[in-house]
């Protein structure tokens, strides 16, 4: 047995193991360490690190910003990978562009969460956008993402971006204006985390939907959507939103750094038309710069689900409420207090 060493455990705290090959550096250590994310009680996902850029606990959640060898800079909240520098474009293009491209003339966007700035960056690529409100509850997350995630510096400096530090639920309740697009770029619902109430039927029905304009579209990330993981929260989020909106579309994409297929749900009271050729034309007409992942064909294909996932969505009966929520594996700060 080797000497006892420090290992960065999935709950955001250090844990000492008596095995020499399991190590996590302090923030000034340069190499030889791994970060381990606990996907489930019998499954873990590890990343070789260059160094730890930041780790700590805010009022709301455990936070780590890691410099990894394979995926570049990685944001981890409550032990869960949120985004990775090399492939975050997949997640954020899928989150933002389908809703904006399906809207006839999107001018205003409200982003719930999104503290790293990537969702705002993608929304601001649309020439029609006049205002993006990004509302994140955790100032510490926003501050260190502004400091370290250089890809989003222009977005944070854009005059069209209105950055608000607040609970998105409270902020939407207090605002009188309506938005063309509302985006849920929230952390996954974990027990004791700050976000699960923003996945409930009452929130969608009583607070969010009244803040949408007449052609308004709501889109949210909806957690893992793989063959073995889609029953955790994805199917329930879909079924909950289906109780509130007339038209609902789900779509998925593989995100390498998540080690899984990811899901999104898009909803409106106006019908959607997803045509690959027309979507490509709309992208060319509306968006500044090139998208790295999304085009008309890939968006259309992403709405086609395998038999297992489709059957689960068809048969799902669970609806998110404050008293009956589903959580993915893991715990937030409040759970541990």
Describe the structure.
The protein is an alpha/beta fold and about 325 residues long. It contains eleven helices and 14 strands. The protein has helices at about 90-100, 120-125, 140-150, 155, 170-175, 200-210, 235-240, 275-285, 295-300, 305-315, 335, and strands at about 5-10, 15, 35-40, 45-55, 60-70, 70-75, 80-85, 110-115, 130-135, 160-165, 180-185, 210-225, 245-255, 260-270. The strands form three sheets. The chain has a seven-stranded mixed beta sheet with strand order 10-9-8-11-12-14-13, with helices on both faces. The longest helix is centred in the first third of the chain and has 15 residues, at about 90-100. It is globular. The two termini are about 35 Å apart. Residues about 1-25 and about 330-335 have low confidence and may be disordered. Keywords: Polyamine biosynthesis, Transferase. It comes from Escallonia herrerae. Its EC number is 2.5.1.79. This is thermospermine synthase. Pfam families: Spermine_synt_N (PF17284), Spermine_synth (PF01564).
Précis, in short:
With 337 residues, the protein is an alpha/beta fold.
Essential attributes:
337 residues, alpha/beta, seven-stranded mixed sheet, 14 strands, 31% strand
């Amino acid at each position: 047995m080797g000497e006892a060493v420090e290992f960065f455990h999935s709950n955001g705290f250090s844990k000492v193991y008596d095995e020499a090959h399991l190590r996590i550096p302090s923030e000034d250590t340069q190499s030889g360490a791994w970060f381990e994310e606990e996907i489930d009680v019998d499954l873990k996902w590890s990343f070789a690190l260059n160094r730890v850029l930041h780790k700590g606990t805010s009022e709301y959640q455990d936070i780590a910003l890691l410099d990894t060898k394979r995926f570049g800079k990685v944001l981890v909240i409550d032990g869960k990978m949120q985004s990775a520098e090399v492939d975050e474009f997949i997640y954020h293009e899928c989150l933002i562009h389908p809703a904006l491209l399906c809207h006839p003339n999107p001018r205003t966007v409200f982003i719930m969460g999104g503290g790293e700035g990537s969702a705002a960056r993608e929304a601001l690529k649309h020439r029609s956008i006049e205002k993006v409100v990004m509302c994140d509850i955790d100032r510490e997350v926003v501050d260190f993402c502004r400091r370290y995630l250089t890809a989003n510096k222009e977005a944070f400096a854009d005059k069209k971006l209105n950055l608000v530090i607040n609970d998105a639920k409270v902020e939407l309740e207090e605002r009188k204006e309506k938005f063309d697009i509302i985006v849920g770029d929230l952390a996954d619902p974990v027990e004791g985390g700050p976000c699960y109430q923003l996945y409930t039927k009452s929130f969608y029905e009583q607070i969010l939907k009244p803040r949408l304009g007449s052609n308004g579209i709501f889109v949210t990330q909806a957690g893992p959507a793989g063959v073995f993981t889609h029953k955790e929260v994805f199917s329930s989020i879909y079924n909950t939103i289906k109780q509130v909106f007339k038209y609902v579309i789900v779509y998925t994409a593989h995100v390498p750094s998540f080690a899984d297929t990811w899901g999104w749900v898009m909803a409106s009271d106006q019908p959607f038309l997803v045509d690959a050729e027309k979507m490509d034309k709309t992208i060319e007409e509306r968006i500044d710069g090139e998208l790295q992942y999304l085009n008309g064909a890939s968006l259309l294909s992403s709405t086609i689900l395998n038999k297992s996932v489709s059957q689960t969505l068809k048969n799902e009966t669970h609806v998110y409420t404050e008293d009956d929520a589903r959580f993915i594996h893991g715990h937030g700060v409040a759970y541990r207090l």
